[in-house]
Amino acid sequence: MTVGILMLVHTAFDRAEQVARHWTKYGCPVVIHVDADVSAKTYKAFAASLADNENVKFCKRHKCEWGAWGLVAASQSAAELMLDAFPNVRHVYLSSGSCLPLRPVKELVDYLDARPRTDFIESATTADVPWTVGGLDHERFTLHFPFSWRRQRYLFDRWVDIQRALRIKRKIPHGIVPHMGSQWWCLTRQTLSAILQDPERETFDTYFKRVWIPDESYFQTLARLYSTNIESRSLTLSKFDFQGKPHIFYDDHLQLLRRSDCFVARKIWHKAHRVYDGFLRDPEGAIKMSEPNPAKIDRIFAKAVERRTKGRTGLYMQSRFPNDGWENGMTFGRYSVFHGFSELFEDFETWLSKTTGAQVHGHLFAPERAEFSGGQKVINGALSDSPIARDYNSIAFLTNLIWNTRGERQCFQVGPRDEGAPVWFLAKDPNAQISVISGAWALPLFKSNRNFSDIRKEAARLQKLENDQLWALRSPYAKARVRIWTMAEFIEAPMEPLQSIIDEIGNGAPRRLSEAPRMTDLSGFGQFLQNLKNQGMHPYLMGDFPVDTLENEQKKPPRKPYLVQ
Amino acid sequence: MRLGRAFRKRRELRPIADRTDQIKPHDLLLYSTQRNEQVRLPYFLEYYRDKGVGHFLFVDNDSDDGSLEYLAEQPDVSVWHTRHSYKKSKFGVDWLNWLQFRYGHGHWCLVVDPDEFFIYPFCDTRPITALTDWLDASSIKSFSAMLLDMYPRGPITEQPYRAGQDPMEIACWFDAGNYTMTKNPDFGNLWIQGGPRSRVFFPENPELAPALNKVPLVKWNRRYVYASSTHMLLPRGLNQVFDEWGGEKASGLLLHAKFLDTFTTKAEEELKRNQHYAASVEYLAYAERLRDNPELWCKWSEKYINWRQLEILGLMSKGNWA
């Protein structure tokens, strides 16, 4: 017994000829259907090229358009001819002109001989398949589809809408349950002839002519009526991408195809010379009986679809520029923003990088320059510290920095002076961990050697700016992990918040902080705030700093570094 | 309207070698304008022949270094000559629009300058025709390839370029992650800036830095025109080469080997001719910096290895091509 190959061809005739000769060389007869849209001249030339081969026959031609009945009609005609002309055929294998046998033909024949009653046809009820194009699954069978999806998309869509609105429902012929699956099947003579010679075939054909994409459902449904043993899978390796078109194989897939152990693959690029030469030749080595194993190829194509539909989180580039809210993550990964910490603690940045191992920058959005870690002028990805270039597109500056330093946690400082900082973007980004000690901007002023009237003016300005920033961080749109303390609150028990921030950054196992950063000397700060108040500028963002308590503290010697045992 | 311009400008072109009758229906066509690029042409032609280009169509803007004669001798090149103003023809766009209207209809057309080398996913194993066949099958009509400025390490005059040499042997460094982009509401394209030119030549006024977005590969139709160099096209839909819903479309890069030792003389000459975009502001900036023989290379420059590296860095994407 042998296998008969049906080939649906509409282009790349040289390759079709090559493949047809390969099948017949190893004893498999071939029936070819050529699309009726192919010119008579081309058809004749193609038919003539195979005229010397008596095991190749050409069947009646139909117009084949994707999604329409023609493909089923073509398969029917080809199958009828095959069953008539080659009585020793037991299994009939439907393939296309761009299919390629990957394993020796003998292995396929042996495989099918060992399963003489099995029909290989992917066939699932509509409820169970995820791969439908255009959102039509069960409706494929209950609506009418007189228009072409490719050429008359507008009419196609409107007609669907109208039928939905009018609640038109076609009656599914009695006795059948719609099934769908890959169009590339391999059926036994018994099953196939039962379908083709069914007394009710006329009814079924009339019905399926107006079903959408009948080549994925005609045989898949009817096989369920007659087959005694359906293996619901296709022997043809054929992967579809998100638009429902098949992935194409190229020369660089050669090894992958070899290792897949699939019998036939679709679709091969017609100029993939190495693939064609590699598979269309005499088999070497022993005949294998292994099962097809396309898992690796599946993974590659699944990844490709994911890249096309989801993309890489945090990447903005020439072919990925998501609209607001469609980014699947506004930045590549988590990062930490510290507000007021480097003002309150004298060695905060060194301490932080020592404790967490993260890359710690100064004020990235400082008006003078982007203060990259270590004072670098250019950083990962050749990002420059120029404040003008940075402010030209500060969001891109930030997303670039986070993207360029993938795999290394980034921390940076922000303060009210950094007017260019994209605070709203930070607030909305779930990847941002933002910790704020409000009012700490007053400390540099407190320590500065400036005239008090200037200090007063600057304090008023910074307070207003910080208030705006806090407004963004507290807004209901904020998705960042935001923590805000007033300075007064924070200095009461600094270790606890520091510990939880560090734990959240979490490089490795959580551990107790053994060393705290050195807090700046606050003696006299209460009085300083009081002076501002006396001048009519009321600093409120730092919380309550009573004048006397700090005055009392002042009598003690300057504070030693905070050590927790 | 722009087609009308192209139509008028056709008179400015005089055919020197017209081999367009050799163009076969499925040929990939390459269009380019050039002026005194003799030293670059041998490698340029070799590179693109190897990648599957079927026919080259050149506009020569009054070269006097023998490059016109060289091109006219090539068996797969058609070349037109013009003495007219590069600037007035919209930097060559009008001329090429005319030639694309006349010969490009129904073909995949690649428009590149002689210092641009097209890189796309799998370009080490698949020719451009594999890409265009896939684009056809996916009903995609235009393909994005951002300009990626390449530069040598050390002063650019240090390593002289020899004819026939792969320019990327010298200019093999690039900036990996300092590009910014905004959407242009008029044409629907992305406006991309950044890279070494922005970093070194325009640190004080980044808005003047040249645009890097390009759509050089298009399944041409006579209704199409390039509106401004190859940065944007009409109709607008052709500029929609980027995904807006989080996914990635497939895209490539044009490795821009501008910064070879030939650049310093070129910059001076171009400045004298004053034939470039925005009153040659770009060349003014170059000339100013070039006097101190600048170094584009920095510690964080990335060395070019292959397209996979560029795709991992996020400069281009395989999209759903696998």
Structural class of chain A: alpha/beta
Distance between the termini of chain A: 85 Å
Name the structural class of chain B.
alpha/beta
**Major pleated sheet of chain B:** 7 strands, mixed
Oligomer: heterodimer
Strand count, sense and barrel status of the largest sheet of chain A are: 5 strands, mixed
The count of DSSP E runs of length 2 or more, i.e. the number of strands of chain A, is 19
Shape of chain A: elongated
Mean pLDDT of chain B: 91
Helix content of chain A: 25-40%
Order of helices and strands of chain B: HEEHEHEHEEHEEEEEHEEEEHHEH
Q: How many discrete structural domains of chain B?
A: 2
Strand content of chain B: 15-25%
Q: Can you list the strand order of the major beta sheet of chain A?
A: 3-2-1-4-9
What helical percentage do the residues of chain B reach?
25-40%
Could you give the count of β-strands of chain B? 16
What is the CATH architecture annotation of the largest domain in chain A? 3-Layer(aba) Sandwich
Which parts of chain A are unreliable, with pLDDT below 50 for 5 consecutive residues or more?
none
- Assign the CATH topology of the largest domain in chain A: Rossmann fold
